[in-house]
Write a structure and sequence with these properties.
Shape of chain B: globular
Low-confidence stretches of chain B: none
Shape of chain A: elongated
Largest interface: A-B, 44 and 36 residues
Helix content of chain A: 55-70%
Strand order of the largest sheet of chain A: 2-3-4-1-5-6-7
Low-confidence stretches of chain A: 254-259
Distance between the termini of chain B: 10 Å
Structural class of chain B: alpha+beta
Mean pLDDT of chain B: 92
Radius of gyration of chain B: 11 Å
Oligomer: heterodimer
Number of strands of chain A: 10
Strand content of chain B: 35-45%
Strand order of the largest sheet of chain B: 1-6-2-3-4-5
Number of helices of chain A: 30
Number of helices of chain B: 2
Amino acid sequence: MSETLKIALVGNPNCGKTSLFNILTGLNQKVGNFPGVTVDRKSGSLKLKSGKKFRVVDLPGTYSLYPRSEDEEITTKVLRNPNHEDHPDLVLVVADATNLKRSLLLCTQTIDLGIPGILVLNMADLVDKMGLQIDDQRLENELKIPVVRISALKDDGIGALKEALEKTVHPTKQDFFSIPQGFLPALEEVKKGLKISDDYLAFQALMDPDNSEGADPVQMENIRTKAGIGDPKELLANEFTVRYDRIQQILDSNLSSEEPKESFTEKLDKILLHKVWGYVIFVGILAIVFQSIFAWASYPMDWIDAGFSAVGDWLGSVLPDHFLTDLLINGVWAGLGGIVIFIPQIAFLFLFIAILEDSGYMSRAVFLMDRIMRPFGFSGKSVIPLIGGMACAVPSIMMARNIPNKTERLITILVTPLMSCSARIPVYTLLIGMFVPDESILGVFNLQGLVMLAMYLLGFLMTLVVAWVMKLALKYKHEGMFITELPIYRMPRWKNVGMTMLNKSKTFVWEAGKVILVISIILWVMASFAPGNAHELIDEKYTAELSAAGTADEQKEALERQMASEKLKASYAGIVGSFIEPAIKPLGFDWKIGISLITSFAAREVFVGTMATLYSVEDTGDESGFVSLRQSMFRETYPDTGKPVYTTAVAISLMIFYAFAMQCMSTLAIVRRETASWKWPMVMLVYMTALAYFSSLLVYQVLSNIS
Amino acid sequence: MKKKLSEFRIGEKGRILEINENEVQLAMLTLGVIPGESFKLTVKAPFGDPIAIQLAGTKVALRKSQAQHILAEVTE
């Protein structure tokens, strides 16, 4: 039995690292999170012919060990901290052979840290095609680590890489960057404080303490000041320059290499980054993406819905009539259904986002949008989370991590939930069907569809307005850094795209799912239990009526639904609903809507199910269910005045409320994790609730006074 | 002739001389852009911001406010 060694894959973004990871681990991979953050952690196992075993971790792509985003921070933290559970026994530095200079920056940094490594030259097939000269032997001699050529795309050279892994790789601590003598006293102090022995590790801790375990930023700053060390950024730039000088020597290349002929990417960029056509194409792509999401996802969503109801009904028929059965079916199972139903839309959206990113297009969209987004306090990179927000805010907020500027990222996170997510669709569908006639305008546009579109636009406009206000409130004037690579265009690597889609969907199920499930159970408890013997009294009353009603099934069912509705009113949820009624009355809402607002905290679409229970109609989950629910809602009148509860003004007010209100606990939970504080989720909850409340108030008061 | 990168026109070629702001310099170096390298300004987004330059191995986009810190020599 040999022990399992830990391998980490490191490399620049787009270097083909993930493709190599997929080849090495095949389907033996697991996706989880790195401790404390929601960055995907992909790990897998690899067994060689000799029986030698490895655990492989795919670390987030980065250009250097001084990170610029939260994803990149992980890679740095893992490599700098020998006690990190993912700290590797061996690194595979995956280099894009067509841009070796930049890849070697990261490579020499890992060598200087003293971690044993192998340099993997990926895209070897392109090297010959492009006529580049790479002297592998010289690289091995200079870097003193094994060098292997592969092509992850063509699955080439993997045998040689595995052979290299069979041999024991020894650490080859070097100093490609020799730390200036003047720093040594300061470094001694750092080494003593952190109990480490390596100069370069101490240098990194001194310059970038945030990502070094145990390094206190204030203390490091004091040491820097005492030693007369200036701006760390300047010194890091100096480190990079020294490294590049060495790299140029090794590569024996001239800086001003001759002009490459106009590439395919260059030609395509002339159209895709065009001042007019670029935007036309961008909007066109978005339209196609959303059209396909809604058209395609509706099929699996219908199957999931039907499947969950069928299993729920079946469970109800075979399990004994007990409150635990009710908990299982209406709490746990219904909660699970509420999570699974969103998987198709989320999976499709991430499929498209992955294709756009992998093909190289996404960074063009970012480029086109940057200037337009900036006045609102966004970065061009905010477009990705904002687009994602039209499916689900939870994974989208995680995608905001790519925004390097902290304020721009925060603003993006805070407004993403205002984009119309898929959980709002059932609510809008129900309400639009109530007051908008199903007619077409000019024979083309469906009126109900147009109102739905208007709700999306409303969400988007409010996103811009709030972002702008946030920008002012946060006093954000300084423009953030936006220096980014526009990678070459290429065919998406379908395996990676598939894996990304799978992983993001898993993240959604896990992150949003657990919150939705817990809330569903809490809400079930609130809706199922009542103080004192209120429920027993209702039971008694209906038992008599039910036995008197004879055997007509329909009549019985109607009575049972009426009983359920009465029980809900008496339950804790009903009490809370009635309690908040005075507060929501000015918005045109009654206590039943109040209950639904509360239950919607699990997920917005729970509104429809709650209303169905409250109005004693069967929630069939399809159009017929909507129709019967709408009829019951129309019949509802206020007992004291006899006036109808649902007017057009109420429906619009309610839609506005759902457009703006923070009714998603999963989003709050993810914001807490992403911002590592309770402050921002609370800010989000307060501003969105206030925005929803006052917008609905205004709309309802104006509309109801006009009519 | 020397001028700021932000003053380059589309299609103009140049060579990076120096980067006068530490953060911008570090970000450019991180992406593999080293003073001394030749480039061609290939695209400007509407309002002339951001801009994109093509270098030997990579294409880099940056905001005008950052391009102001980069001094370059016009070569063509």
